[in-house]
Design goal:
With about 130 residues, this protein is mostly helical. The chain has six helices and no strands.
């Protein structure tokens, strides 16, 4: 595995561990943000692997998936679309207090678990 690809994977792992720590401390908005970031970096690892070039500086997971040639199942595809949209809200909060209510512990835990599942799927798509 090329160093650049490994770097993306290591960074994604670090970000996901940060998401887990944020969740444990009740910082749900940033848990979601870090989940998105960890997915973004895992997809960028695949892009780096197949193109041999630095991935585009984009946060759009659906766009990045298309470049990476990854085809998740329908459930994962829907989740990826949703977390891409949620990421925008965490970056540009229109109503911060409403956002605090929207990201309940239960909802955020689902996002965290689904993110972990998709990260594991992407890892399986990478060449060892």
């Amino acid at each position: 595995m090329k160093d650049e690809v490994k770097n993306w994977i290591d960074s994604a792992r670090y970000d996901f561990e940060t998401a887990e720590n944020l969740f444990a401390s009740g910082r749900y908005i940033y848990t979601v943000f870090m989940c998105h970031l960890s997915l973004e970096k895992m997809i960028k690892a695949k892009i780096e692997e197949i193109t041999g070039k630095a991935p585009p500086r984009s946060h759009d997971l659906e766009y990045l998936l298309s470049i990476a040639g990854l085809s998740p199942d329908k459930e994962a595809e829907i989740f990826i679309s949703e977390i891409s949209n949620l990421s925008i809200v965490t970056r540009y909060p229109g109503d911060f207090h409403r956002m605090l209510k929207d990201f309940s512990k239960v909802r955020t835990e689902f996002i965290l678990n689904k993110t972990k599942e998709i990260i594991e799927w992407i890892k399986k798509c990478l060449t060892p």
